[in-house]
Write a structure and sequence with these properties.
12-stranded antiparallel barrel; mainly beta; single chain; 317 residues; 46% strand; Porin; two-stranded antiparallel sheet
Length: 317
């Protein structure tokens, strides 16, 4: 246990050298793209597991996001598994407090190559919206995406990973098929004192938002011992085309700065109670070089984060 505490302290120290920020529409924790994946060629992929995780994310404005997620994996034959993620999300911010079931994630992962040194896995899946991203405050004002519990779009997700005992390299793509029904425009905001109106305009407008397509790359170095492990890595996410919204006149516009690269540093620390159960702490920050932060200038989807932490309990059966 003393070794586990030491490694946790090292991970925390490592994390704070990064600046604030993390942005992910969900696919970075699905299938072959998941962080901190164990590698053991003697254990078949047919093992089933249940993860219960508790996530807290602070944003660049006042909203704080809390998410409790049940992450279930089931075997399909000898080489494939099905992952189902069921989140419940609560948002507390200066404009409102919202809560509800988050988007449902489904993913099938199949092992396509295994050797004594590494294995390659392929994942295909998607995300199903649980609402239209059109939650309102008590006065009937449509809220920014920061306060929404769903992205409001049907997304296709696919990815591939190569992992060994020491390394995980994964890449994936997430493509939304439709715009959501968010109706947040500054001109539609009713009531509020002057300070609230000024603060409200710090949120990017997101009326009828169509998110751009994201491509991710995960490079991770793992250190594994008998009962505890830790990892460090980088997670660049590139939005290859600009988000689109509708303005007051109903015309489609592309907010400036809503595409490009966001790069995060990720650290995990895990402890196995036995072969069936364990806990894991994950921390994430966007990478910073001096005053230069690798992050998109504008996030109409509300996914920007100041600090990300997640505590997970895993049970294998």
């Amino acid at each position: 246990m003393s070794k586990f505490i030491l490694i946790t302290a090292l991970a925390l120290s490592w994390s704070v050298v990064f600046s604030q920020g993390c942005s992910d529409a969900g696919f970075c924790t699905m299938g072959a793209m998941k962080p901190d994946q164990p590698y053991n060629k003697k254990i078949a992929i047919k093992l089933r597991s249940m993860d219960i995780s508790f996530y807290r994310g602070t944003t660049t404005l006042t909203p704080i996001i809390y998410v409790a997620t049940a992450d279930l994996s089931f075997s399909i034959g000898q080489k494939a598994s099905l992952q189902v993620k069921l989140p419940y999300q609560v948002v507390h911010g200066a404009l409102a407090k919202t809560s509800g079931v988050g988007d449902i994630s489904l993913c099938v992962t199949r092992n396509i190559y295994t050797s004594d040194q590494f294995e390659i896995n392929l994942s295909v899946g998607g995300k199903i919206p649980t609402n239209n991203s059109d939650k309102q405050d008590e006065e009937g004002n449509y809220l920014p995406m920061y306060y929404q519990t769903s992205l409001g779009s049907y997304d296709l997700i696919t990815g591939i990973s190569l992992k060994s005992r020491k390394w995980l390299i994964a890449t994936g793509i997430q493509h939304p098929f439709n715009k959501n029904n968010n109706q947040f425009l500054w001109s539609r905001w009713k009531g509020g004192d002057p300070e609230e109106l000024v603060y409200m305009q710090r949120y990017p407008q997101a009326n009828q938002l169509r998110r751009g397509t994201d491509i991710m790359l995960r490079i991770e170095r793992n250190f594994r011992f008998s009962q505890f492990n830790y990892s460090i890595g980088v997670l660049p996410i590139l939005r290859i085309n600009n988000d689109e919204i509708e303005n007051e006149a109903g015309a489609t516009v592309k907010p400036q700065g809503a595409k490009g690269l966001a790069m995060s540093g990720i650290a995990t620390v895990g402890y196995n109670f036995n072969t069936r159960s364990g806990v894991k702490l994950l921390l994430g920050h966007v990478v910073k070089f001096g005053d230069f932060v690798i992050q998109r200038d504008r996030n109409p989807d509300g996914l920007t984060r100041e600090f990300v932490s997640s505590l997970t309990y895993t049970y294998r059966f």
